[in-house]
């Protein structure tokens, strides 16, 4: 006999850091604000929905954010406060289930297939969690409710802010079919552009390609894309071991050899990396540069510090120093990556068959 589908909820706090700041300072309510640094190498950790109307986004360099929204107000992060609120929210989760997989301070997966109150409907569980979060923290959260993690995460973003989206097992394939491939978890910007060049714009386009085609163009990732395009994801919700590193890397369409071009790409990567570090509170002592050459040979170079790197300027400059020591490259680079290892964070969890129908 087939077992019942899982009931998975993905909870995502709405503009978390910015919402906390607007909650605690009424003078900021209704204004475009960004939490983070507004300097030349400052990064937007998150921003209010008022700022998003201007195109400001998380992990964006502060200078660019100011150009998009000249009236943008930068607020210094208060991670001790965000962590305290996150613990409040996780305590609410624990009233319903112990199977919780936090991804960062502001989002988590919950498996409520069997839940403590014995509520049959996962949708009702999600509504109760959202109500409690609002009443106890003064903040709003959006929820995705579905039968697996992939679709639950996509669904939580569907009706933001302060919304809920439910995708039942018989609706999963159609939900993915209508989704732009760039939004599917695991399809990065470069892969999305490659897919677009192959005429793959939506989940339906992706599903229309057979496994042989996907393997020819996407190698080892083909199996994941094949299953994802069909709304399939059998990953369980589970606590993960603390991550050992945080990194960002980018693959280029054309191999890069020019030092200035490589430095510019690395600066952009460092900005994105710092956004991830701040969101996950994952501070590391070792900065690692990764270069993949045109012949697919990979080298890594690193520099360690006695204390965790807590400055975006130090992170970016260390990366540039490691790159400079490799110039000129012996051949073009097809990929650059930057990361931090030897983390000293306790709050940095991360993410990475057919089952009788139960009501979601």
From TrEMBL:
Subunit structure: Monomer.
NCBIfam families: PRK02406.1
Species, as recorded: Sphingobium amiense
Cellular component aspect of the GO annotation: cytosol
InterPro entries in the cross-refs: DNA/RNA_pol_sf, DNA_pol_Y-fam_lit_finger_sf, DNA_pol_Y-fam_little_finger, DNA_polymerase-Y, DNApol_IV, PolY_HhH_motif, Rev_trsase/Diguanyl_cyclase, UmuC
The protein's name in its UniProt record: DNA polymerase IV
Family (UniProt): Belongs to the DNA polymerase type-Y family.
Domain UmuC: 8-188
Catalytic activity: DNA(n) + a 2'-deoxyribonucleoside 5'-triphosphate = DNA(n+1) + diphosphate
Database matches in PANTHER family: DNA POLYMERASE KAPPA, DNA REPAIR POLYMERASE UMUC / TRANSFERASE FAMILY MEMBER
Cited function: Poorly processive, error-prone DNA polymerase involved in untargeted mutagenesis. Copies undamaged DNA at stalled replication forks, which arise in vivo from mismatched or misaligned primer ends. These misaligned primers can be extended by PolIV. Exhibits no 3'-5' exonuclease (proofreading) activity. May be involved in translesional synthesis, in conjunction with the beta clamp from PolIII.
Top-level taxonomic group: Bacteria
Parts forming coiled coils: none
Cofactor or coenzyme needed: Mg(2+)
One MF term in the entry's GO annotations: damaged DNA binding
Binding site residues for Mg(2+): 12, 106
Subcellular location: Cytoplasm
Cofactor mode of binding and number, as noted: Binds 2 magnesium ions per subunit.
UniProt site positions, description: Substrate discrimination: 17
EC number from the UniProt entry: 2.7.7.7
Record Pfam families: IMS, IMS_C, IMS_HHH
GO annotation, biological process: DNA repair; DNA-templated DNA replication; error-prone translesion synthesis; SOS response
Catalytic-site annotation from UniProt: 107
Statement: the UniProt record of this protein carries the keyword Ubl conjugation: no
């Amino acid at each position: 006999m087939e077992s019942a589908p899982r009931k998975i909820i993905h909870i995502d706090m709405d503009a978390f850091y910015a919402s906390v700041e607007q909650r605690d300072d009424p003078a900021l309510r209704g204004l475009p604000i960004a939490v983070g640094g507004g300097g030349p190498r400052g990064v937007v950790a998150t921003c209010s929905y008022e700022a998003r109307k201007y195109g400001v986004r998380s992990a964006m360099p502060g200078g660019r954010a100011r150009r998009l929204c000249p009236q943008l107000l930068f607020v210094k992060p208060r991670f001790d406060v965000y962590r305290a609120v996150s613990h409040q929210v996780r305590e609410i989760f624990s009233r319903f289930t112990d199977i919780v997989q936090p991804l960062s301070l502001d989002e988590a997966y919950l498996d409520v297939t069997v839940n403590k109150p014995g509520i049959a409907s996962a949708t009702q569980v999600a509504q109760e969690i959202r109500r409690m979060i609002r009443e106890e923290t003064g903040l709003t959260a959006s929820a995705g409710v579905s039968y697996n993690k992939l679709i639950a995460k996509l669904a939580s973003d569907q009706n933001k802010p302060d919304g809920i989206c439910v995708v039942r097992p018989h609706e999963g394939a159609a939900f993915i079919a209508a989704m732009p491939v760039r939004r599917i978890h695991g399809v990065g910007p470069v892969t999305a552009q490659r897919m677009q060049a192959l005429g793959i714009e939506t989940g339906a386009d992706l599903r229309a390609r057979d496994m042989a085609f996907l393997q020819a163009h996407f190698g080892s990732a083909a199996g994941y894309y094949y299953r994802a395009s069909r709304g399939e994801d059998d990953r369980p919700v589970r606590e993960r071991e603390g991550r050992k590193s945080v990194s960002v890397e980018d693959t280029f369409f054309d191999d890069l050899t020019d030092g200035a071009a490589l430095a510019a790409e690395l600066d952009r990567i460092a900005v994105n990396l710092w956004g991830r570090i701040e969101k996950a509170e994952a501070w590391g002592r070792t900065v690692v540069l990764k270069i993949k050459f045109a012949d697919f040979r990979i080298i890594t170079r690193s520099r360690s510090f006695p204390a965790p790197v807590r400055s975006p300027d130090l992170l970016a400059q260390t990366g540039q120093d490691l790159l400079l020591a490799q110039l000129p490259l012996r051949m073009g680079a097809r990929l650059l990556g930057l990361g931090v290892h030897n983390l000293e964070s306790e709050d940095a969890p991360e993410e990475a068959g057919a089952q009788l129908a139960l009501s979601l």
